Amino acid sequence: MINFIMDTDIVIEVLRGNEIVIQKIKNLPIDTIITITGLTVYELYKGTYIMGDRQKEQEVMDFIELVDVLQLNTAVEKKAGEVYANLKKRGEQINDADILIAAIVLKNNGVLITNNTKHFKRIENLKIENWMQ
Predict the structure, then answer these.
(1) For the chain, which domains are there?
(2) Distance CA 43, CA 88 (A)
(3) Which H or E run includes 128?
(4) Chain Cα centroid distance, residue 129
(5) Geometric angle at alpha carbon 95, from 89 and 97, rounded to 5°
(6) What is the predicted pLDDT for the residue at 1?
(7) How far apart are CA 76 and CA 11, in angstroms?
(8) Closest CA to 7 of 113, 80, 128
(9) Which of 6, 23, 58, 105 places its Cα 20 to 30 Å from the Cα of 130?
(10) Which one-letter DSSP state was computed for residue 72?
């Protein structure tokens, strides 16, 4: 059983009805788990409040009801610190939200679904798929 964890950019594509992403989801085996992170929930709501769009806010709420949300915990935060230190030593830092998302994926032995491969490919042992290609 594979745990696919969608990054915010992919969730936005789902909400927009992107046929490429929707078809990928439809083609997954039945026992596949699709999750998001609490950071993605934050980023989605942040966007809807900036837009001031109540309909988009409702769409986000409806989507969140359909998926499991993985949250930060001490083990994830420890892993995030390790990821940050490794990136800093190599001079390849990325933003904290992406580090925390990656740490959640790593600690849950998941596969991150993202179109932001440029940043996430810098993180050792992180499994990534780009469903926009």
Answers:
(1) 3-129 (3.40.50.1010)
(2) 24
(3) strand 127-129
(4) 11
(5) 125
(6) 76
(7) 22
(8) 113
(9) 58
(10) -
